[in-house]
UniProtKB/TrEMBL annotation:
Any Gene Ontology biological process: potassium ion transport
Cellular compartments annotated: Membrane
Protein name: RCK C-terminal domain-containing protein
Keyword check for tRNA-binding: no
Keywords: Membrane, Repeat, Transmembrane, Transmembrane helix, Transport
Alphabetical list of Gene3D superfamilies matching this protein: Regulator of K+ conductance, C-terminal domain
Organism: Catenovulum maritimum
Length: 574
Protein backbone atom coordinates (compact mmCIF):
# COMPACT_ATOMS: atom_id res chain seq x y z
CA UNK A 1 0.00 0.00 0.00
CA UNK A 2 2.89 2.37 0.76
CA UNK A 3 4.28 1.73 -2.71
CA UNK A 4 0.90 2.55 -4.27
CA UNK A 5 0.64 5.72 -2.20
CA UNK A 6 4.07 6.79 -3.40
CA UNK A 7 3.09 6.11 -7.01
CA UNK A 8 -0.14 8.12 -6.75
CA UNK A 9 1.69 10.97 -4.97
CA UNK A 10 4.30 11.01 -7.76
CA UNK A 11 1.63 11.02 -10.47
CA UNK A 12 -0.21 13.86 -8.73
CA UNK A 13 2.95 15.93 -8.27
CA UNK A 14 4.12 15.33 -11.84
CA UNK A 15 0.69 16.34 -13.17
CA UNK A 16 0.88 19.67 -11.36
CA UNK A 17 4.49 20.19 -12.47
CA UNK A 18 3.69 19.43 -16.10
CA UNK A 19 0.70 21.79 -16.10
CA UNK A 20 2.77 24.64 -14.68
CA UNK A 21 6.09 24.20 -16.46
CA UNK A 22 5.41 22.40 -19.75
CA UNK A 23 3.74 23.60 -22.92
CA UNK A 24 1.66 20.44 -23.31
CA UNK A 25 -2.09 20.64 -23.49
CA UNK A 26 -3.87 20.00 -20.19
CA UNK A 27 -5.86 17.15 -21.74
CA UNK A 28 -2.62 15.40 -22.79
CA UNK A 29 -1.15 15.74 -19.30
CA UNK A 30 -4.26 14.36 -17.58
CA UNK A 31 -4.42 11.55 -20.14
CA UNK A 32 -0.87 10.52 -19.25
CA UNK A 33 -1.79 10.63 -15.55
CA UNK A 34 -4.74 8.33 -16.25
CA UNK A 35 -2.56 5.93 -18.25
CA UNK A 36 -0.02 5.89 -15.42
CA UNK A 37 -2.74 4.88 -12.94
CA UNK A 38 -3.78 2.05 -15.27
CA UNK A 39 -0.17 0.94 -15.81
CA UNK A 40 0.46 0.80 -12.06
CA UNK A 41 -2.78 -1.21 -11.66
CA UNK A 42 -3.98 1.24 -9.03
CA UNK A 43 -7.25 1.97 -10.81
CA UNK A 44 -9.28 -0.20 -13.17
CA UNK A 45 -10.69 0.93 -16.49
CA UNK A 46 -14.18 0.21 -15.12
CA UNK A 47 -13.62 2.80 -12.37
CA UNK A 48 -12.52 5.41 -14.90
CA UNK A 49 -15.55 4.70 -17.10
CA UNK A 50 -17.83 5.14 -14.09
CA UNK A 51 -16.22 8.52 -13.39
CA UNK A 52 -16.65 9.57 -17.03
CA UNK A 53 -20.44 9.14 -16.75
CA UNK A 54 -20.74 11.06 -13.48
CA UNK A 55 -24.05 12.97 -13.53
CA UNK A 56 -22.28 16.26 -12.88
CA UNK A 57 -19.92 15.69 -15.83
CA UNK A 58 -22.78 14.85 -18.19
CA UNK A 59 -24.69 17.95 -17.03
CA UNK A 60 -21.67 20.16 -17.75
CA UNK A 61 -21.31 18.71 -21.26
CA UNK A 62 -25.05 19.14 -21.93
CA UNK A 63 -24.82 22.76 -20.78
CA UNK A 64 -21.90 23.48 -23.10
CA UNK A 65 -23.73 21.90 -26.04
CA UNK A 66 -26.92 23.82 -25.22
CA UNK A 67 -24.95 27.05 -25.24
CA UNK A 68 -24.35 26.48 -28.96
CA UNK A 69 -28.01 27.26 -29.65
CA UNK A 70 -27.80 30.41 -27.53
CA UNK A 71 -24.64 31.49 -29.35
CA UNK A 72 -26.56 31.43 -32.63
CA UNK A 73 -28.99 34.07 -31.42
CA UNK A 74 -28.14 37.71 -32.15
CA UNK A 75 -29.82 39.19 -29.07
CA UNK A 76 -26.63 39.77 -27.09
CA UNK A 77 -25.01 41.61 -29.99
CA UNK A 78 -28.10 43.77 -30.42
CA UNK A 79 -28.10 44.65 -26.72
CA UNK A 80 -24.38 45.47 -26.92
CA UNK A 81 -24.85 47.83 -29.87
CA UNK A 82 -27.58 49.65 -27.99
CA UNK A 83 -25.34 49.92 -24.92
CA UNK A 84 -22.48 51.60 -26.76
CA UNK A 85 -22.37 55.38 -26.35
CA UNK A 86 -19.70 58.06 -26.70
CA UNK A 87 -19.62 58.40 -22.92
CA UNK A 88 -17.17 55.76 -21.68
CA UNK A 89 -18.60 55.48 -18.16
CA UNK A 90 -22.15 54.88 -19.37
CA UNK A 91 -21.02 52.40 -22.01
CA UNK A 92 -18.83 50.60 -19.50
CA UNK A 93 -21.62 50.32 -16.96
CA UNK A 94 -24.13 49.02 -19.50
CA UNK A 95 -21.73 46.53 -21.13
CA UNK A 96 -20.31 45.12 -17.91
CA UNK A 97 -23.80 44.77 -16.45
CA UNK A 98 -24.99 43.03 -19.60
CA UNK A 99 -21.98 40.68 -19.59
CA UNK A 100 -22.38 39.89 -15.89
CA UNK A 101 -26.11 39.13 -16.09
CA UNK A 102 -25.73 37.06 -19.26
CA UNK A 103 -22.78 35.14 -17.76
CA UNK A 104 -24.88 34.14 -14.77
CA UNK A 105 -26.89 31.83 -17.03
CA UNK A 106 -24.78 31.35 -20.16
CA UNK A 107 -21.25 30.15 -20.85
CA UNK A 108 -19.19 33.26 -20.11
CA UNK A 109 -16.70 32.52 -22.88
CA UNK A 110 -19.55 32.50 -25.41
CA UNK A 111 -20.89 35.75 -23.90
CA UNK A 112 -17.56 37.55 -24.31
CA UNK A 113 -17.07 36.16 -27.83
CA UNK A 114 -20.49 37.50 -28.84
CA UNK A 115 -19.93 40.93 -27.31
CA UNK A 116 -16.44 41.46 -28.72
CA UNK A 117 -17.74 41.92 -32.26
CA UNK A 118 -19.92 45.01 -31.75
CA UNK A 119 -17.26 46.54 -29.48
CA UNK A 120 -14.42 45.89 -31.91
CA UNK A 121 -16.35 47.17 -34.90
CA UNK A 122 -17.44 50.56 -33.53
CA UNK A 123 -15.52 53.83 -33.45
CA UNK A 124 -17.13 55.63 -30.50
CA UNK A 125 -14.69 54.37 -27.84
CA UNK A 126 -11.35 52.60 -28.19
CA UNK A 127 -11.97 48.85 -27.85
CA UNK A 128 -9.08 48.55 -25.37
CA UNK A 129 -11.10 50.72 -22.96
CA UNK A 130 -13.93 48.16 -22.93
CA UNK A 131 -12.68 44.63 -23.63
CA UNK A 132 -10.73 43.87 -20.45
CA UNK A 133 -13.56 45.17 -18.20
CA UNK A 134 -15.90 43.01 -20.29
CA UNK A 135 -13.85 39.89 -19.54
CA UNK A 136 -13.66 40.65 -15.82
CA UNK A 137 -17.40 41.33 -15.64
CA UNK A 138 -18.14 37.98 -17.34
CA UNK A 139 -15.87 36.18 -14.84
CA UNK A 140 -17.58 37.89 -11.89
CA UNK A 141 -21.05 37.25 -13.30
CA UNK A 142 -20.24 33.58 -13.74
CA UNK A 143 -19.56 33.18 -10.01
CA UNK A 144 -23.18 33.94 -9.04
CA UNK A 145 -24.84 30.68 -10.16
CA UNK A 146 -24.09 27.00 -10.54
CA UNK A 147 -24.08 27.17 -14.35
CA UNK A 148 -22.42 30.58 -14.71
CA UNK A 149 -18.97 29.11 -15.20
CA UNK A 150 -17.59 25.69 -16.06
CA UNK A 151 -15.47 25.95 -12.89
CA UNK A 152 -18.56 25.74 -10.68
CA UNK A 153 -19.81 22.79 -12.70
CA UNK A 154 -16.44 21.01 -12.41
CA UNK A 155 -16.50 21.46 -8.63
CA UNK A 156 -20.10 20.24 -8.58
CA UNK A 157 -19.02 17.10 -10.48
CA UNK A 158 -16.48 16.30 -7.77
CA UNK A 159 -19.03 17.06 -5.06
CA UNK A 160 -21.60 14.71 -6.60
CA UNK A 161 -18.95 12.02 -7.06
CA UNK A 162 -18.66 11.89 -3.27
CA UNK A 163 -22.32 10.88 -3.09
CA UNK A 164 -23.75 14.31 -2.30
CA UNK A 165 -26.74 15.78 -4.19
CA UNK A 166 -25.99 18.52 -6.69
CA UNK A 167 -25.23 21.94 -5.30
CA UNK A 168 -28.22 24.28 -5.40
CA UNK A 169 -28.58 26.51 -8.45
CA UNK A 170 -28.12 29.65 -6.34
CA UNK A 171 -25.70 28.17 -3.79
CA UNK A 172 -23.00 30.54 -5.04
CA UNK A 173 -25.24 33.61 -5.23
CA UNK A 174 -24.74 35.32 -1.81
CA UNK A 175 -20.96 35.43 -2.18
CA UNK A 176 -21.02 35.79 -5.97
CA UNK A 177 -23.27 38.84 -6.04
CA UNK A 178 -21.08 40.59 -3.43
CA UNK A 179 -18.03 39.85 -5.58
CA UNK A 180 -19.85 41.13 -8.64
CA UNK A 181 -20.96 44.44 -7.11
CA UNK A 182 -17.61 45.27 -5.49
CA UNK A 183 -15.71 44.13 -8.58
CA UNK A 184 -17.77 46.25 -10.98
CA UNK A 185 -17.27 49.32 -8.78
CA UNK A 186 -13.49 48.92 -9.01
CA UNK A 187 -13.64 48.12 -12.74
CA UNK A 188 -15.55 51.33 -13.48
CA UNK A 189 -13.60 53.56 -11.07
CA UNK A 190 -10.28 52.48 -12.60
CA UNK A 191 -11.35 52.87 -16.22
CA UNK A 192 -8.77 55.62 -16.86
CA UNK A 193 -5.88 53.24 -16.15
CA UNK A 194 -6.72 51.19 -19.25
CA UNK A 195 -4.58 51.74 -22.37
CA UNK A 196 -6.11 53.43 -25.37
CA UNK A 197 -5.50 51.59 -28.63
CA UNK A 198 -7.54 52.32 -31.74
CA UNK A 199 -7.60 48.89 -33.28
CA UNK A 200 -9.70 49.15 -36.41
CA UNK A 201 -8.03 46.86 -38.94
CA UNK A 202 -5.93 48.92 -41.36
CA UNK A 203 -4.79 46.90 -44.36
CA UNK A 204 -1.93 49.29 -45.09
CA UNK A 205 -0.25 48.17 -41.84
CA UNK A 206 -0.01 44.61 -43.13
CA UNK A 207 0.16 44.71 -46.91
CA UNK A 208 2.44 45.81 -49.72
CA UNK A 209 0.91 46.20 -53.17
CA UNK A 210 2.95 45.62 -56.38
CA UNK A 211 1.97 45.76 -60.06
CA UNK A 212 3.51 43.49 -62.70
CA UNK A 213 4.88 45.55 -65.63
CA UNK A 214 4.12 44.54 -69.22
CA UNK A 215 7.77 43.58 -69.84
CA UNK A 216 8.30 41.72 -66.57
CA UNK A 217 10.24 38.43 -66.79
CA UNK A 218 7.76 37.05 -64.23
CA UNK A 219 4.96 36.89 -66.84
CA UNK A 220 3.98 33.38 -67.88
CA UNK A 221 5.70 31.76 -64.94
CA UNK A 222 3.99 30.27 -61.92
CA UNK A 223 4.11 31.66 -58.42
CA UNK A 224 6.53 28.94 -57.33
CA UNK A 225 8.74 29.37 -60.41
CA UNK A 226 9.07 33.08 -59.58
CA UNK A 227 10.06 32.04 -56.05
CA UNK A 228 7.27 34.17 -54.59
CA UNK A 229 6.62 31.47 -51.96
CA UNK A 230 10.20 31.53 -50.65
CA UNK A 231 10.46 35.10 -49.41
CA UNK A 232 11.80 35.58 -45.90
CA UNK A 233 9.58 38.41 -44.66
CA UNK A 234 6.58 38.46 -46.99
CA UNK A 235 3.83 36.14 -48.16
CA UNK A 236 1.79 36.44 -51.35
CA UNK A 237 -1.82 36.34 -50.23
CA UNK A 238 -3.76 37.83 -53.15
CA UNK A 239 -3.62 38.60 -56.85
CA UNK A 240 -5.96 41.25 -58.22
CA UNK A 241 -6.59 40.73 -61.91
CA UNK A 242 -9.02 42.83 -63.92
CA UNK A 243 -10.66 44.08 -60.71
CA UNK A 244 -11.21 40.50 -59.51
CA UNK A 245 -9.61 39.08 -56.39
CA UNK A 246 -7.80 35.72 -56.49
CA UNK A 247 -7.22 34.40 -52.97
CA UNK A 248 -5.79 32.16 -51.64
CA UNK A 249 -3.07 32.06 -54.31
CA UNK A 250 -1.98 28.59 -55.43
CA UNK A 251 1.72 27.78 -56.12
CA UNK A 252 0.98 26.84 -59.76
CA UNK A 253 -0.92 30.05 -60.50
CA UNK A 254 0.54 31.87 -63.54
CA UNK A 255 1.49 35.55 -63.39
CA UNK A 256 0.07 37.87 -66.07
CA UNK A 257 0.92 41.42 -67.12
CA UNK A 258 -0.94 44.01 -65.08
CA UNK A 259 -1.49 41.69 -62.12
CA UNK A 260 -1.60 43.35 -58.73
CA UNK A 261 0.38 41.27 -56.24
CA UNK A 262 -0.59 41.81 -52.61
CA UNK A 263 1.94 40.67 -50.00
CA UNK A 264 1.59 40.51 -46.25
CA UNK A 265 4.53 40.78 -43.92
CA UNK A 266 6.89 43.01 -41.99
CA UNK A 267 7.07 46.31 -43.89
CA UNK A 268 10.39 47.13 -42.24
CA UNK A 269 11.94 44.57 -44.67
CA UNK A 270 10.46 46.19 -47.78
CA UNK A 271 13.86 45.97 -49.53
CA UNK A 272 13.25 42.27 -50.12
CA UNK A 273 10.36 43.08 -52.48
CA UNK A 274 12.34 45.76 -54.29
CA UNK A 275 14.59 43.02 -55.69
CA UNK A 276 11.69 41.40 -57.59
CA UNK A 277 12.11 41.95 -61.36
CA UNK A 278 9.61 43.87 -63.48
CA UNK A 279 7.28 45.17 -60.79
CA UNK A 280 6.43 48.60 -59.42
CA UNK A 281 5.00 49.66 -56.08
CA UNK A 282 1.48 50.98 -55.75
CA UNK A 283 1.31 54.10 -53.63
CA UNK A 284 -2.18 53.29 -52.44
CA UNK A 285 -4.15 50.10 -51.86
CA UNK A 286 -7.61 50.13 -53.45
CA UNK A 287 -9.15 48.13 -50.64
CA UNK A 288 -10.51 45.35 -52.86
CA UNK A 289 -9.09 42.69 -50.58
CA UNK A 290 -10.22 44.36 -47.37
CA UNK A 291 -13.68 42.91 -47.95
CA UNK A 292 -12.15 39.47 -47.49
CA UNK A 293 -10.28 40.23 -44.26
CA UNK A 294 -11.57 38.39 -41.22
CA UNK A 295 -10.14 38.54 -37.71
CA UNK A 296 -10.32 35.42 -35.54
CA UNK A 297 -8.97 34.14 -32.22
CA UNK A 298 -7.72 30.55 -32.02
CA UNK A 299 -9.92 28.53 -29.66
CA UNK A 300 -8.62 26.20 -26.96
CA UNK A 301 -10.53 23.37 -28.67
CA UNK A 302 -8.65 23.78 -31.95
CA UNK A 303 -6.53 20.94 -33.23
CA UNK A 304 -4.23 23.53 -34.81
CA UNK A 305 -2.56 24.35 -31.48
CA UNK A 306 1.09 23.31 -31.51
CA UNK A 307 1.15 22.97 -35.31
CA UNK A 308 2.46 25.30 -37.98
CA UNK A 309 0.02 26.59 -40.56
CA UNK A 310 2.05 24.86 -43.24
CA UNK A 311 2.04 21.44 -41.55
CA UNK A 312 -1.68 21.73 -40.72
CA UNK A 313 -2.61 22.52 -44.33
CA UNK A 314 -4.31 25.70 -43.16
CA UNK A 315 -5.00 27.08 -46.63
CA UNK A 316 -6.71 23.95 -47.90
CA UNK A 317 -8.57 23.37 -44.64
CA UNK A 318 -10.21 26.80 -44.47
CA UNK A 319 -9.76 28.35 -47.95
CA UNK A 320 -7.92 31.18 -46.23
CA UNK A 321 -4.42 32.57 -45.81
CA UNK A 322 -3.07 34.01 -42.58
CA UNK A 323 -1.79 37.52 -43.31
CA UNK A 324 -1.24 38.76 -39.76
CA UNK A 325 -0.63 37.14 -36.39
CA UNK A 326 -0.67 38.80 -32.98
CA UNK A 327 0.55 37.08 -29.83
CA UNK A 328 1.22 38.47 -26.35
CA UNK A 329 0.05 41.85 -27.60
CA UNK A 330 2.66 41.97 -30.37
CA UNK A 331 2.57 41.56 -34.14
CA UNK A 332 4.60 38.47 -35.13
CA UNK A 333 6.88 39.09 -38.13
CA UNK A 334 8.54 36.62 -40.49
CA UNK A 335 7.26 33.54 -42.28
CA UNK A 336 3.90 33.01 -40.66
CA UNK A 337 3.48 29.57 -42.19
CA UNK A 338 6.40 28.26 -40.12
CA UNK A 339 5.24 29.61 -36.74
CA UNK A 340 3.61 27.19 -34.28
CA UNK A 341 0.11 28.30 -33.35
CA UNK A 342 -0.88 28.86 -29.71
CA UNK A 343 -4.24 29.06 -28.00
CA UNK A 344 -5.48 32.66 -28.07
CA UNK A 345 -3.47 33.70 -31.14
CA UNK A 346 -5.16 36.54 -32.99
CA UNK A 347 -5.16 35.78 -36.72
CA UNK A 348 -5.99 38.07 -39.61
CA UNK A 349 -7.25 35.95 -42.51
CA UNK A 350 -7.60 36.73 -46.20
CA UNK A 351 -10.46 34.40 -47.06
CA UNK A 352 -11.62 32.77 -50.24
CA UNK A 353 -15.19 32.27 -51.39
CA UNK A 354 -15.51 28.89 -49.65
CA UNK A 355 -14.40 30.05 -46.20
CA UNK A 356 -17.89 30.63 -44.81
CA UNK A 357 -19.12 27.23 -45.96
CA UNK A 358 -16.45 25.29 -44.06
CA UNK A 359 -18.05 23.22 -41.27
CA UNK A 360 -15.14 23.36 -38.83
CA UNK A 361 -14.89 27.10 -38.19
CA UNK A 362 -16.62 27.21 -34.79
CA UNK A 363 -14.42 24.42 -33.42
CA UNK A 364 -11.21 26.24 -34.28
CA UNK A 365 -12.02 29.95 -34.05
CA UNK A 366 -13.85 32.70 -32.27
CA UNK A 367 -14.71 35.06 -35.12
CA UNK A 368 -14.15 38.68 -34.10
CA UNK A 369 -15.00 40.46 -37.35
CA UNK A 370 -18.59 41.53 -37.80
CA UNK A 371 -19.48 39.02 -40.48
CA UNK A 372 -22.23 36.43 -40.80
CA UNK A 373 -20.66 32.98 -41.17
CA UNK A 374 -24.04 31.33 -40.68
CA UNK A 375 -27.54 32.19 -41.80
CA UNK A 376 -28.91 34.45 -39.03
CA UNK A 377 -31.92 33.25 -37.08
CA UNK A 378 -35.22 35.07 -37.49
CA UNK A 379 -36.45 37.32 -34.69
CA UNK A 380 -39.13 34.76 -33.86
CA UNK A 381 -36.60 31.93 -33.54
CA UNK A 382 -34.24 34.15 -31.53
CA UNK A 383 -36.89 34.79 -28.90
CA UNK A 384 -38.12 31.17 -29.02
CA UNK A 385 -34.63 29.88 -28.16
CA UNK A 386 -34.32 32.38 -25.33
CA UNK A 387 -37.79 31.50 -24.01
CA UNK A 388 -36.98 27.78 -24.13
CA UNK A 389 -33.78 28.21 -22.15
CA UNK A 390 -35.51 30.50 -19.65
CA UNK A 391 -38.18 27.82 -19.16
CA UNK A 392 -35.49 25.20 -18.45
CA UNK A 393 -33.89 27.49 -15.84
CA UNK A 394 -37.27 28.18 -14.22
CA UNK A 395 -38.15 24.48 -14.02
CA UNK A 396 -34.72 23.69 -12.59
CA UNK A 397 -34.81 26.43 -9.96
CA UNK A 398 -38.33 25.45 -8.88
CA UNK A 399 -37.27 21.82 -8.52
CA UNK A 400 -39.81 20.52 -11.03
CA UNK A 401 -37.12 19.15 -13.33
CA UNK A 402 -33.41 18.40 -12.96
CA UNK A 403 -30.99 20.60 -14.88
CA UNK A 404 -29.76 17.65 -16.94
CA UNK A 405 -33.29 16.62 -17.98
CA UNK A 406 -34.16 20.20 -18.87
CA UNK A 407 -31.02 20.66 -20.98
CA UNK A 408 -31.66 17.40 -22.86
CA UNK A 409 -35.21 18.55 -23.71
CA UNK A 410 -33.85 21.95 -24.76
CA UNK A 411 -31.18 20.47 -27.03
CA UNK A 412 -33.71 18.07 -28.59
CA UNK A 413 -36.07 20.98 -29.24
CA UNK A 414 -33.31 23.02 -30.88
CA UNK A 415 -32.41 20.10 -33.14
CA UNK A 416 -36.07 19.56 -34.05
CA UNK A 417 -36.46 23.29 -34.76
CA UNK A 418 -33.30 23.25 -36.94
CA UNK A 419 -31.61 25.85 -34.75
CA UNK A 420 -28.63 23.51 -34.46
CA UNK A 421 -27.68 20.28 -36.19
CA UNK A 422 -26.74 17.02 -34.53
CA UNK A 423 -23.54 17.05 -36.60
CA UNK A 424 -22.62 20.39 -34.98
CA UNK A 425 -23.02 18.94 -31.50
CA UNK A 426 -20.83 15.99 -32.40
CA UNK A 427 -18.16 18.34 -33.73
CA UNK A 428 -18.36 20.65 -30.71
CA UNK A 429 -18.37 17.93 -28.05
CA UNK A 430 -15.94 19.22 -25.35
CA UNK A 431 -13.82 16.08 -25.42
CA UNK A 432 -10.76 17.66 -23.81
CA UNK A 433 -12.70 19.04 -20.83
CA UNK A 434 -14.49 15.68 -20.43
CA UNK A 435 -11.12 13.92 -20.44
CA UNK A 436 -9.62 16.32 -17.88
CA UNK A 437 -12.52 15.88 -15.45
CA UNK A 438 -12.61 12.09 -15.91
CA UNK A 439 -8.87 11.81 -15.26
CA UNK A 440 -9.02 14.16 -12.26
CA UNK A 441 -11.94 12.27 -10.70
CA UNK A 442 -10.08 9.01 -11.21
CA UNK A 443 -6.92 10.45 -9.66
CA UNK A 444 -8.95 11.63 -6.65
CA UNK A 445 -10.39 8.12 -6.32
CA UNK A 446 -6.87 6.66 -6.41
CA UNK A 447 -5.82 9.01 -3.62
CA UNK A 448 -8.74 7.79 -1.50
CA UNK A 449 -8.31 4.06 -2.26
CA UNK A 450 -4.60 4.02 -1.44
CA UNK A 451 -5.03 6.00 1.77
CA UNK A 452 -3.01 8.92 0.39
CA UNK A 453 -5.88 11.32 1.14
CA UNK A 454 -5.83 10.36 4.84
CA UNK A 455 -2.06 10.74 5.12
CA UNK A 456 -2.24 14.01 3.23
CA UNK A 457 -4.95 15.21 5.62
CA UNK A 458 -2.73 14.46 8.62
CA UNK A 459 0.23 16.23 7.04
CA UNK A 460 -1.80 19.33 6.13
CA UNK A 461 -3.37 19.44 9.58
CA UNK A 462 0.04 19.39 11.22
CA UNK A 463 1.18 22.18 8.90
CA UNK A 464 -1.73 24.35 10.04
CA UNK A 465 -1.96 22.98 13.59
CA UNK A 466 -0.85 26.25 15.19
CA UNK A 467 -3.24 28.28 13.05
CA UNK A 468 -7.01 28.48 13.02
CA UNK A 469 -9.12 26.68 10.43
CA UNK A 470 -9.71 30.06 8.78
CA UNK A 471 -6.02 30.32 7.88
CA UNK A 472 -6.20 26.84 6.35
CA UNK A 473 -9.25 27.95 4.36
CA UNK A 474 -7.44 31.07 3.10
CA UNK A 475 -4.44 28.90 2.22
CA UNK A 476 -6.66 26.77 -0.05
CA UNK A 477 -8.19 29.90 -1.61
CA UNK A 478 -4.82 31.54 -2.36
CA UNK A 479 -3.24 28.32 -3.65
CA UNK A 480 -6.16 27.78 -6.02
CA UNK A 481 -5.92 31.37 -7.28
CA UNK A 482 -2.17 31.04 -7.92
CA UNK A 483 -2.66 27.72 -9.70
CA UNK A 484 -5.43 29.23 -11.84
CA UNK A 485 -3.12 32.00 -13.03
CA UNK A 486 -0.40 29.47 -13.85
CA UNK A 487 -2.52 26.83 -15.60
CA UNK A 488 -6.26 27.13 -16.33
CA UNK A 489 -9.36 27.53 -14.18
CA UNK A 490 -10.76 24.03 -14.75
CA UNK A 491 -7.41 22.30 -14.25
CA UNK A 492 -6.85 24.27 -11.03
CA UNK A 493 -10.28 23.29 -9.69
CA UNK A 494 -9.75 19.64 -10.59
CA UNK A 495 -6.37 19.46 -8.85
CA UNK A 496 -7.25 21.47 -5.75
CA UNK A 497 -10.54 19.76 -4.89
CA UNK A 498 -9.05 16.59 -3.33
CA UNK A 499 -6.47 18.64 -1.42
CA UNK A 500 -9.12 21.00 -0.07
CA UNK A 501 -11.31 18.07 0.96
CA UNK A 502 -8.41 16.39 2.78
CA UNK A 503 -7.65 19.58 4.67
CA UNK A 504 -11.30 20.08 5.68
CA UNK A 505 -11.50 16.49 6.93
CA UNK A 506 -8.27 16.89 8.90
CA UNK A 507 -9.86 19.72 10.86
CA UNK A 508 -13.17 17.87 11.12
CA UNK A 509 -15.09 20.86 9.76
CA UNK A 510 -17.81 21.32 7.17
CA UNK A 511 -16.37 20.33 3.78
CA UNK A 512 -18.51 22.75 1.79
CA UNK A 513 -16.65 25.86 2.98
CA UNK A 514 -13.38 24.48 1.58
CA UNK A 515 -15.15 23.33 -1.59
CA UNK A 516 -16.36 26.90 -2.09
CA UNK A 517 -12.80 28.15 -1.59
CA UNK A 518 -11.79 26.02 -4.59
CA UNK A 519 -14.78 27.11 -6.70
CA UNK A 520 -14.30 30.84 -6.12
CA UNK A 521 -10.51 30.61 -6.19
CA UNK A 522 -10.49 28.88 -9.58
CA UNK A 523 -12.58 31.70 -11.06
CA UNK A 524 -10.27 34.47 -9.79
CA UNK A 525 -8.17 35.08 -12.89
CA UNK A 526 -7.49 38.81 -13.14
CA UNK A 527 -3.68 38.94 -13.36
CA UNK A 528 -2.91 36.80 -16.41
CA UNK A 529 -4.42 36.34 -19.87
CA UNK A 530 -3.88 32.57 -19.69
CA UNK A 531 -5.80 31.61 -16.56
CA UNK A 532 -9.25 32.11 -18.05
CA UNK A 533 -10.38 31.87 -21.66
CA UNK A 534 -12.30 35.16 -21.61
CA UNK A 535 -9.04 36.93 -20.76
CA UNK A 536 -7.31 35.12 -23.61
CA UNK A 537 -10.06 36.21 -26.00
CA UNK A 538 -9.59 39.92 -25.28
CA UNK A 539 -5.79 39.80 -24.82
CA UNK A 540 -4.58 40.19 -28.40
CA UNK A 541 -7.90 41.52 -29.70
CA UNK A 542 -7.58 44.54 -27.40
CA UNK A 543 -3.86 45.00 -28.01
CA UNK A 544 -3.10 44.48 -24.31
CA UNK A 545 0.22 43.58 -22.70
CA UNK A 546 0.85 41.50 -19.58
CA UNK A 547 1.41 44.64 -17.53
CA UNK A 548 -2.13 45.82 -18.36
CA UNK A 549 -3.56 42.77 -16.59
CA UNK A 550 -1.38 43.40 -13.53
CA UNK A 551 -2.09 47.13 -13.42
CA UNK A 552 -5.85 46.90 -13.97
CA UNK A 553 -6.50 43.49 -12.43
CA UNK A 554 -4.52 43.63 -9.17
CA UNK A 555 -7.03 45.81 -7.25
CA UNK A 556 -9.87 43.61 -8.53
CA UNK A 557 -8.01 40.49 -7.40
CA UNK A 558 -7.26 41.91 -3.93
CA UNK A 559 -10.91 42.90 -3.48
CA UNK A 560 -12.04 39.47 -4.72
CA UNK A 561 -9.79 37.62 -2.24
CA UNK A 562 -10.87 39.83 0.67
CA UNK A 563 -14.61 39.48 0.03
CA UNK A 564 -14.34 35.71 -0.51
CA UNK A 565 -12.24 35.17 2.62
CA UNK A 566 -14.84 37.02 4.71
CA UNK A 567 -18.14 35.93 3.19
CA UNK A 568 -17.61 32.23 2.40
CA UNK A 569 -17.09 31.31 6.09
CA UNK A 570 -20.10 33.48 6.95
CA UNK A 571 -22.50 31.80 4.49
CA UNK A 572 -20.84 28.36 4.71
CA UNK A 573 -19.69 28.09 8.35
CA UNK A 574 -16.87 25.76 9.30
Amino acid sequence: MLLEQAAVAAIFALTIGALVFSHWRASSIFSLALLALFACQIITIETALAKSTNSGVITLIALMLASRALERTSLLKQFARNALEKNQTKSLFKLTSLAAIASSFLNNTAVVAALIRPIKNQNKIAASKLLLPLSYAAILGGTTTLIGTSTNMVVNSFWMDLGHPSLDFFAFFPVGVALLVTGLIIIILRKNTLPEHHLQTDSQKYFVDLKVKSDSPMIGKSVSENELRNLNSFFLIEIIRREQSITPVQPDHLIEAGDRLVFSGDVSFIDELQTLPGVKFFAEHTGLMSDNLIEVVLSSSSGLIGKTMKSAGFRAMFDAAVVGLKRNGLQIPGKLGEIQLNEGDNLLLATGSDFKSRKNLDKHFFIISDMAVEQPLSTKVNYSVLAGFTAVMALTISGIMSLLDGLIFFIAGCIAGKVIKSSELKRLFPFELWLIITAALTLAEAMTQTGLSDNLAQFLHSAFSEQSVWFAFVGVLLTTIILTELVTNNAAAALMFPLALSLANSFGVNEISFVMAVAFGASASFLSPYGYQTNLLVFNTGGYKFKDFINYGLPVSICYITVTAILVPYFFPF
